[in-house]
Amino acid sequence: MDIFEKLLKHMGPIGEHSDRAHGYFAFPKLEGEIGPRMKFRGNEKIVWSLNNYLGLANHPEVRATDAKAAADFGLAAPMGARMMSGNTNYHEQLERELSDYMGKEDTTLLNYGYQGVMSAIDAVCGRRDVIVYDAECHASILDGLRLHPGKRYVFKHNDIEDCEKQLRRATELANAQGGGILVVTEGVFGMAGDQGKLKEIAALKDKFEFRLLVDDAHGFGTMGKTGAGTGEEQGVQDKIDLLFNTFAKSGASIGAFISGEKAIINYLRYNMRSQIFAKSIPLPIVIGHLKRVELMRKYPEMKAKLWENVNKLQNGLKARGFNIGKTNSPVTPIYLQGDIPEATAMCLDLRENYNIFCSIVVYPVIPKGQIIYRLIPTAAHTDEDIELTLKAFSETKAKLDEKVYQVAEIPMV
Known about the structure:
Blueprint: H1 3-9, H2 18-21, E1 30-31, E2 37-40, E3 43-47, H3 60-73, H4 89-102, E4 106-110, H5 113-124, E5 130-134, H6 139-147, E6 151-155, H7 160-177, E7 181-186, H8 198-203, E8 211-215, H9 230-234, E9 242-246, E10 256-260, H10 262-271, H11 273-276, H12 283-298, H13 301-319, E11 332-337, H14 340-353, E12 356-357, E13 359-361, E14 370-375, H15 383-401
Parallel strand pairs: 3-12, 5-6, 5-7, 7-8, 8-9
Antiparallel strand pairs: 1-2, 2-3, 4-10, 9-10, 11-14, 13-14
């Protein structure tokens, strides 16, 4: 069989709907200045799908810094991989400032978050090592685990008793084959919005020998007194051995970083294949990151405004009887019941008749018969945005319950 013929016969559980979904439910195009209100198909929508938590995407100082850096250096500089010819004083300055912010000895920059965390796992763990990880870890972590040639054990989401059970299994195996143990979890789980139980996992170090890697992509800038993340929020920042963060959320940019002990970060710097064999982050991005970190630390009122909006939205949803799960972060899921055609019909109604644009999650990401709308409040949203959204969801939920959205298939758009 021609390998391409096989692909075209089986587009995948999401791709099989591409003829109806593309450009609307999948790969939509939001236009205009990044913010809580943008254009979709020519009409203004209230947008809840952007991880621009602190509203930095269009902050005037950020825009000015980005523009000046691009004018000064262009997007080519520096040329080459960081190790070979792509290092600069700006890259090293950013790493020092991030280390200070995170309360860690050292930091190394990563071109992208997804491949960065995969490469970190690959660099740390060999075939004799054992990985223990939370069942709801991000796809980037799961793909990193797929690269691991050794054994891995999964524990039920945020279930410390099961985590301890898997650590016992991992310890027995690691001792038998002369390896170590890496525990991997998240600071804030990006789908459900609940914090990882970092404090409880860190306490297990009293019983077991392991190192802890935390993906805090959604916690950086949003959690903790200073915005240093979920480890700071839970008082265990010093117990996290490898702290991974991305600039794609609160930083409103691209790229990532990993922080920890100086010797270990230096090991990663010289052994992470995704960084050794890839071009260095362009200078305008790095200089833009420096400004973003400066603003995060200088203006705590941005995080305060974010949380003001988070509480208004989440409390408003709960007051109207919506199930938002166990979120204790800005990530705001709305759990509903319905099949895929119903979900898409409801989403269509929200976008076209209520001008609400938010992300919808259905099977195969979650079990059949379930619908999740994931809303991301930001510091830039207004009270009017929140009130109009609460009204829209109340009215469309009533239609869902009354079976108004029951259709045979995904609507054509």
